Each structure stands twice: as structure tokens, then as C-alpha cells.
Model the fold of this input.
Amino acid sequence: MNTKKLIQRIRHLVQIFFFIFFVYLVVGSVCSFVLGGAQIVEPLGALQIIVASRLSVPQTVIITFLAATAVFIGVTVLSGRAWCAWACPIGSLTELTEHSITKMKFKPLVERKPKVNIKKGRFWSKQVKLATFSAVMLSSTVAKTPTWCNFCPIGTVCRGTVAGSFVAGAEMAIVGAVLAANTYEKRFFCKYLCPVAGFLTLISRLNPFVKPRVRQDACRRCAACAVICPEGLLVCEEKSFAECTKCFVCYSKCPYGVISIGLYKTH
Amino acid sequence: MQNRPPSTVNRRVFLWSIVSFFALATLTLTNLNQDKKVRPPGITSEEEFLSLCIRCNRCADVCPIKGIKPDNSNLTSLGTPELNGYCAVYLDLVNPLPSKNRAFRKLRSSAQLCFRCIETCPTGALRNLNVEDLKMGVAEVDRSACLAWRYHICYRCVDICVFDAVSIKGNGGIEVEEEHCVGCKQCEYICPVPSKAIVVRPTQAEDLEKRRQLRNRGQ
Done:
């Protein structure tokens, strides 16, 4: 097995590990759990609660929140949006559905070219997830309740096992809708709507490590990378890679093999 | 790179954020002040609880009787914990039995509290209250179904209540004192009537306070 396949195998194993860890093993869910005695609180939820409760959270809790957020920012600066492709339970489920849809010979649906026009941009803007992020914060402040946490598909998947069975109830329709959106475009929810991804993207602009590197002299500008990339990045033209989830699919699947992984991006 | 799509927040994105903000806010606001739920211990007001709960369901995971389930009945409280089974309150009462609880009443002051859900809550949505301040709900007796009211038999709820909230009246019926009742649902759990003749209704400390004020005003 060559490295291109091996790296994807390793990634899928890590995804399976994190899925089992977050959904079945951990006490609580992604939103909050204890790891080696340290309280981990998911920062998007923490921020929502701080604004929703108008700072009436106990002080010790705010310190926990800030510590968790600092850890989160540190990890994101180091690894960018690696969470989305390596650990997120919804990301794993999304890839699994994509895979099974392709296996079920609905190929044209999934491999359909994304609505990308290099000159005009695309209909769905990836900035929308930044907008959802700010909308979530605003509506939490107004409605005095963490609005996103109610509907968050990541949390819903983790809560599903608490309820006794994997399917918790009507709320699982949210997860179903997220997975169904994949037939329209790869990772539709993660790419355009997920506020967690929006929050990660905001910080991952600072991340300089592990980014795709294209041998520009050998690249034939076929734009296949924009179709291959789960995030729909035109890898050969991309500069910042703030959206990059470090899934290495471009490296594995570039038809001309001109993409490698640079450990440190200088520009 | 003139060919690249603009990466700043443009008009379309701005419109999107407005739309989604209103969608989320209206979804939530229309659902506020709907019927309350019997929550895990440590809550004094539903509104405060909803603003603090991160919906992580750690309380449901640590509950020794798995009596807490995520609620999915209304949109504001999707995923918030609801007391579905019963609350042990004390570690000795994880499996409540009328005879056991009756003997336990004398040891109550020195017994060890359970409160694992309160200890594990990462946001302080469940507060560490005294046992006297606990108020998850108040039990109500359905006199037409209750065996004590109809046939003067059973009295299991009287035996199982360690807070002395259920008492026998002179005519053989039973009655709940709402000041003493914490709403642990143990009476509901032990009630032999299939449709449950004693049911805990969600009442939090603030509701009780309001009722008390109304009553005082009436006098």
C-alpha cells in the first residue's frame, strides 16, 4: 500500500476512534467532558452560555470556559480545521454517507461538480458559516438561551446514545437533513453552514502548519482539486488554506500527483 | 489573482446572517414559556436553567439510575435534561423500596447525598443546593384513581416518601404537602396503578414563591 492510500486509512481509523470515543465512551458529549481531570467545554457552547446568561455564570465556570477556549485556540493554531476531517462525529458520518452513496451507484449525484466558476465564485458562499456563527451568538443573546445547542447535529449525535438508543427521537431528523444535504454537494453542511467550522475558520487563518503544496510547474490547471477537496478548495490557486481540514484527500487523489504536504507554509 | 472569488463578507452573506439570526431567534422565542419539565435537582428557575444549560447531557451519563433523559418535546429545550425516571437524592435510595425508605427516614440527616448530576454539571446550570431547597416538582394525587382514596389500601407512597410530604388524612385518603415535597418522583415510580395515581408536576422554587405571594395577598 502506498502512502497515499495509507494516510487515508489512518485518517479513517482516527475518525472511527473519535466517533466511538465521543458518542459511546466519554461521560457527556463533545459539548463537555472530563479528560484526565481537566474540564473540557466546547467553546462555541461556552460563548453562547456566557452571552445567554448575561454573565451570570459562576466565576469558577467562566475560568473553566476561558481555559478551555485558550486550549481550543492553541490547538486550532497548531492544527487548523483538522477537527473537521479527523475527529468530528458529524464529519465522519458525512464521509460515511458519501462513501455509501457512491457505492450505491448514485455516483452522478455525489461526484457532480460543485457549483464552482473560477471567475464568478459559487452560489453558496463559504462565508455563510461565519454569518451563522455571528447569528448564533446574536440570537443567543436575544433569546437568553444557547440557540445553536438545541439544534447542533454534533451534540444531537452524542446525545443519541444517552437516550438509550442511537436514534433519540424527532431531533435526529436534524442529523438526517445534514447527511441528506450531501447528495447536493459534498459536506454541504460543514462547508457552508456549520458555525463550529466558522469559528474554527476564523482562528485557523493563523495556522501555518501542514498545508498542501502544489508543484506549480507540473500542475496542469485541470481544477480537479476543486471537485476532489471536501471543502471545495481550488488547491492549485488557494493561498491562505484557512478552510483546509488537513484531510490530505487532494494529496491522495490529485490525478497528476503534483500535490504534496508542506509541513510549514512560509507565505 | 483577480480570478479568485471575493473573500470578504459581501451583501449576500450579510443578508444570510440576518435571515438565520431571525430564524434562530424566532424559533427560540416562540417556544419560550411553554410548559415546564421536571428537571434534575439543583434548579431554582426554568429560564435561568435554559440560559445556562449547555445540553451536554453529562448529568444523564452519570446518573446512577439513568433517570435523566434528553428532552425532545419542544424546540427551546431540545437536548436539555429531563427527569424521566426518579431521583434517588440519597445514595442509599438508588433502589427505593417502601420498607427500606421507612427505615431510612431516621438516618436521613447523616446520609450521603447522591447529587452526581450537580457535581458533574460544567456550567453551574444545576446548582449545589441544600436538600431543603430542592424543588424539582410537586406531586399531585389523582383521587379517582388512587387506591387509598377508593379502597383505603396501598399507601406505598406514604412509606416511600422520605421527606414526609405524603400523609394519610383522617378519611383514609392521602395528601401531599407541597412545602415538603421535592418532586423526586419516587412515589410516582412506586405507584402500582398503571396510569400512576400520583404524578409529579414541574414546579420550581420560583413558582412556589409566586404561589405563596398570591396566597398571602388573598388573605
In short: The first strand of chain B starts at residue 68 and ends at 70.
